[in-house]
Amino acid sequence: MRHPWFTVLALSAAVAGIGRSEMLLDRFPSRRVLRHVTARQGLVQDVVNAVAEDRVGFLWFGSEKGLARYDGLRFETFRPSPEAPGSLSSEAVTTLLVDSSGALWVGTWGGGLNRLDRATDTFTHLRHRDGDPGTLCDDRVLALFEDRTGTLWVGTASGLDRVDRDTLRVTHYEPATTVVAEGQPAVWSVCEDLFETLWVGTGAGLLRLNRQSELLVEAGQPVATGKSLPRGRVRALAIDRLGRLWVASGSGLRVLDRERGFLPPSELIPAAAALDDAAGSTLFTDHSGTLWVGTRNAGLYGLDLGSGRVEHLTHDPSFSGSLGHDDIHALFEDHSGVLWIATHGAGIDRLDLKPAKFVSVSDDLLGERSVPLGRAWSFFEDAHGGLWVGTDRGLIRFDPDGRRFARLKLAEPRWPGLTDGPVTKLSRGERDEVWAVVRPDWLVRLSANGQVVQATRLVLGSSTSRDEGGIQDLHPLAGGTILIGTEHGLVAFDSATGSPSLTGDPTGGATVTTLLVDSRGLLWIGTDGQGLLRCTSPSGTCQSLVYQGSSLTSLSHDRVWSLHEDLRGTVWVGTTSGLNRFEPAAGGFTRFQAREGFPSDNVYAIQSDKAGRLWLSTDGGLTRFDPASGRFRTFTSSDGLQANLATPGACFATRDGTVIFGGFDGFSAFDPSRVQPNPNVPRVVIRSFARPDREMRFARPLHELAEIRLAHAENFFSIGFAALDYTDPSRNLYRYRLEGFEPEWVQATAGSPANYTNVPPGRYLFHVVGSNNDGIWNETGATLPVIITPPVWRTWWFRTVAGLALASLAIAAYRARIRHLEGERRKLELLVAERTSELAQSRDLLAEHRDQLQQINEIVKAINSPHDFHELLSSLLAQMRLIRGVDKAAALIWDREASVFCFRAAWGWPMEELDLIEMTAEQAKERYEREAEEIFPDIFVARSTGQNPAEEELTQPRQWKAMLILRIRVGERVEGYLILDSTRDERAFSERDGLLLDSLREHIRSAFIKAQTLAELQALNLKKNEFLGMAAHDLRGPLGLIGAWAGMTLRQLQNGSLQPEKGIRDLGRVVAQAEQMNRLVSELLDISAIESGKVLIRAGAEDLRGLIGECEHLFGRIAADKGIALSVLQGEGPAPVQADRDRILEVLSNLISNAIKFTPPGGGVKEWCEQGPDGFVAHVEDSGPGLSNDDLKAVFRRFGKLSARPTGGEPSTGLGLAIVKKLVELHGGRVWVTSRPGKGARFSFSLPEPPPAG
Q1: Fewest 10 Å CB contacts: which of 333, 558, 645, 1178?
Q2: 1193 pLDDT tier (thresholds 50, 70, 90)
Q3: By C-alpha distance, which of 492, 468, 379 is closest to 427?
Q4: How far apart are CA 1234 and CA 358, in angstroms?
């Protein structure tokens, strides 16, 4: 794969290199630093066989224990699972390929070929099936390759297959040579050259595909006179940028020359002789054309085919950045220019192929253990370009021509006590001489060839330790004077006499850390704790510049680490609390500190480059700072520095522009113009979406989803993302925000997901952008719409309704407030009026009380006057008009005979309408008690609040707005209601009105009881008179006839004229009249016994249909004698009822005899029974004259006389139907009649069914 940005980078480097000679840093010994990815970081296993990169930018690693997807920080592993048919077919992954359509193919050992479905992360399996030539020839897959036409080639342990990617059908290719066929048919590698020749590496050698015959032919000797390829297993094939075929086998590496055959690499590149016989395992050509050769246990070789340079990387246990293992299985370069090296047992190694920013030199790079470095303190460049380095272990000089370091010996017998190191300071002297400080307190002058010319030990103050050292810095001046900064102040050393002087020390004995003489000749002295001195000369006037607390223009700290003057003449001061820039005009400083975003507060050394930028060593790495723009960038050991922590004051710039910083393990050198950022703009992907309890899976990859929709309760979630640049993934940076929820971007480092809690319902857009390790941002980034659906109460329509309701409520509240204010105003007015009329009100109140007492007296007098019950009710209603608000009234009285409440008197209401209203006791209670408020005992107030449930059953519901109700009770029995109505004012009847009625309650009750008792006595007297009259009337007729016929018969017997037949007839008539009289007396006794409760019902299970049949036999002759057809309508099966047999026969006899009595000859009477809702119902229907409305009201009353008369002149007592009603009700049933005049009548009664048995 070729990467366009690498082409740009290479072209830029080429242009920049025109006319430029090799720099000093290019001659330093250097080495590659590899980063390792192993099972400790989450890799599925450290034996890795294959590497690939998909179109999104994820890396895939195939190992002996499964397949892993990698985003730079996290792994997702795929393994076989018996419960998941779409899982990987085998955990032993041997090879990987991402084809031109973006599909990932996974070759396995024993599991055939797998194709990944990116939407579901499941696999389609291609397996060998015996007898099916359209399947793989072997499930042991060793190689995968896609040619220029998009054809997929599969190398297996049994040969070569071609796969149709659309149909997944397989074509097998046979070798044309028996040598291969009978030997090792396994295909280990496949490739295609520029001439579209397909080369196949097998276990027995190299083959190529004959396109015409479609056979595999041997290719070990392509030309007759050329060199042939040694027989043996061909493990790897590759085509270099010149189109040449490279073959790696167990016998060594070979390259195909079209004229000379297969050549060992040493014939092209002499330095590659080691590869002539090396057992190669894998080959790869990177973007620059370098051929990388992985070997079996000999490490990794890089062949620069243009320059002939050979690079060899092996495992070095003493160097953590070396190759992880020397057995290489696979090589792959990703889109960000990183070479991935799959090893046997050490995981994956990551090698950055981009140009190195820094060259670091440490002990293990010198190659000579006799020349150790340790900490690098100071540097000096001599006239010949040689670099002098002062280290912990002495003075070292680098010869750029010989490209080697040499140690300079300092200790000599003539200077007792002088050692070889540490050398902490180096400075140029006169005539190419070098001044060096050897700890703790030796000042040494050396010649240009490194010979010690002069050595002086400066003994100042108390003795010092070797670790701390007395001399901190030095600066030679013109005339041979050297300024020396020590722990005890500033010393002027005369090199001619070799004597120091502390005369006129401007520091006052403070510890001097660093010295600077600027371009204006001013001396700057940095101290440890006493700030900074700015002097006109060593003995001249000095200005003290120190930290001044709250002053932001003072020095940021009194401990000064370093001083530097840039190309513009600006002086910079590095302290333990940031960088300071001196402002000459103001005499103060501008600070750059960590709290303002600066990388670190400890600035140990400062150096300018040719572009005017400052390079600062800090305790967090090396920082590049552009004073003009204020931008900075920090580099660390990940960028190639020897360490993140540098030695204070250890920096230097050579004449060719190389900048050097010393550290604790050698030094780092670089060309500032070459320190370019990683140009790769990373692909940013959203890799995961998780709830607190699980990671969510979707039908498609996250980066392809149109949106994610969540319920309102799923508003806790986290989103994972990655910038797919693998140069140094741990240093990739991110900014994200949930648009619509977060107003600002959130800064994030690698590995930190975006966590969200309690996100309100709405539509959001998650947007993340990322950078590579050098801060190159992908500002487009990745987006993911997230929709959280609201609960019902937060939908737009609910809010609209709620808003309207609230608006209505607000309007109502406003109006109520206005009414309240208006009411308050009226109250104030009334209060004033009340205060002025209190006496008048008191007088009126007394008058009102007097009038009320008079009213009560009048009402009591009025209700005690009448003795007739109806008159009493009418008088009561008339007097109630005195209560305010009453405009209509009515009296509802309990009718004991009918067991219902009926209106018996009214005022203001038409009585003809009220006569039609009847209520049960429960209806009256529901209407006048439960729906009303009891304000005093037995006194209720009701307000009209809509339809009253009790009103529904009334045929003529009354219209009212307020009712004042007096319940009349006699003992525990409610005898009536006195109802006072207001049809105009629903606020009528105050507590005072109730109090007035309460004061009359006992009077009304007493008058009611008296009048009712009187009325009942009168009714009883009337009933008695009626009964006696009827009895006398009904008995007088039969007695008269008996007397007449008996007398006639007696006279005829006396005179002998009695004829027997006539006598018998007359005596029969006497008997019939006597029976009628007996029947009358029996019915009178029955009705009396029933009403007095002396009749006992002995109920049992009876067949009602059978009882009807018995009555038909009893009355059949009577009906026939009258010419009436008596019929029974037969039903199916018995009709079981719970009844007293004799009493029900009495009921049926009464009903049938009545029907026959009122049916004219020629008519008919029917009787039958049927199942009813509460038992069985018996019917007796005649074709007589029927009943009028008045008849229907009186039909079941005692002595009720009907408008119709018996058609045969039969006698009637008027008690039969009353007895029927009483007997049926004693059984728990009911009786009723339906009739129309001239249409006959049907009498019906119901009886309950017997209880269940047991």
Answers
A1: 645
A2: confident
A3: 379
A4: 119
Residue 152 covered by a domain:
no
Give one word for 938, left, alpha or beta, with left for phi > 0 and alpha for psi -120 to 50. Answer: left
**Rg from Cα positions in the chain:** 62
Confidence of residue 1252 (pLDDT cuts 50, 70, 90): confident
SS (H, E, C) 954-994: CCCCCCCCEEEEEEEEECCEEEEEEEEEECCCCCCCCHHHH
Q: Which of 14-18, 274-278, 758-762, 923-927 has the lowest mean pLDDT?
A: 14-18
Contact 61, 44 (CB under 8 A): yes
Helix residue ranges, H only, 19-104? none
Q: Judge residue 956's burial from the number of C-beta atoms within 10 Å of its C-beta, 0-12 exposed, 13-18 middle, 19 or more buried.
A: middle
**Domain end among 997, 1028, 1061:** 997
Looking at 794, 813, 830, the residue that finishes a domain is: 794
What's the structural domain count of the chain?
Answer: 3
In 683-795, alpha helices (H): none
Contact 37, 347 (CB under 8 A): yes
Q: How many CA atoms lie within 13 A of 1097 on its CB side?
A: 20
Ramachandran class of 772: left when φ > 0, alpha when ψ lies in -120 to 50, beta otherwise: beta
Owning domain of residue 778: 683-794
Q: pLDDT band for position 16 (50/70/90)?
A: very low
904 near 870, Cβ under 8 Å? Answer: yes
Q: Are residues 764 and 889 in the same domain?
A: no
Q: What is the CATH number of the domain that holds 879?
A: 3.30.450.40
Tokens of 165: 């990617």
| Residue 1223 and residue 1113 share a domain | yes
With respect to residue 756, please indicate whether it lies within any of the assigned structural domains: yes
CA angle, 530 as apex, 529 and 536 as ends, to 5°? 145
User: What average pLDDT is seen over the chain?
Assistant: 84
Residues 887 and 788 grouped into a single domain: no
d(CA 261, CA 270): 18
What's the rounded Cα separation, in Å, for the pair 445 and 755? 64
Distance in angstroms (rounded) separating the CA atoms of residues 274 and 262 = 17
Number of neighbouring beta carbons within 10 Å of residue 1044: 13
- Phi then psi for residue 610, to 5 deg, are -70, -20
CATH value at residue 723: 2.60.40.10
Asked if residue 782 is part of any domain, the answer here is: yes
Q: Return d(Cα 186, Cα 208) in angstroms, integer.
A: 14
Report d(CA 694, CA 707) in Å as an integer: 19
Amino acid at 91: E
From 268, 355, 339, select the one nearest 14 (Cα to Cα).
Answer: 355
